[in-house]
Amino acid sequence: EVQLVESGGGLVQSGGSLRLSCETSGFPFGDYAMSWGRRTPGKKLEWISSIQTDGTTTSSASAKGRFTTSRDNAKSTLYLEMNDLTPDDAALYHCAIDRTEFWGRGTRVTVSS
Questions:
Q1: Residues contacting residue 24 through CB under 8 Å, at least 6 positions apart
Q2: Spatial separation of the C-alpha atoms in residues 67 and 12, rounded to whole Å
Q3: Binned average pLDDT, 10 residues per bin, the chain of 113 residues
Q4: By the 8 A CB rule, do 51 and 59 touch?
Q5: What CA–CA distance (Å, rounded) separates 46 from 57?
Q6: Residues 56, 1, 28: CA angle, nearest 5 degrees
Q7: Alpha carbon distance 85, 89 (integer Å)
Q8: Cβ(78)–Cβ(71) under 8 Å?
Q9: Distance (Å, rounded) from C-alpha 93 to C-alpha 21?
């Protein structure tokens, strides 16, 4: 069974940092590109970043320069390091296996101004 479990969310002050993790199981993690997305109430899911099997990353304009995506294939875990957070970054953050229907349930990030 494919499982993706996000963690690391929480409450942080504006300008602060968080590191999100996505622990996975049930599939060969190293063979798949992975992505992060976020959803805020009343808005569509927003793509944040993707990381390919070779470690190459791409990021949205809102994430570029502030967020870093990485992966540890030995641990089957995906990471999102977020810096200089603003209230606009508050959302439910999900990880996903690229081009599949598999998404985690998310971890909530709240940013106080």
A1: 2, 3, 4, 5, 76, 77, 78, 95, 97
A2: 15
A3: 98 98 98 97 90 97 96 98 97 96 97 94
A4: no
A5: 16
A6: 30
A7: 6
A8: yes
A9: 10
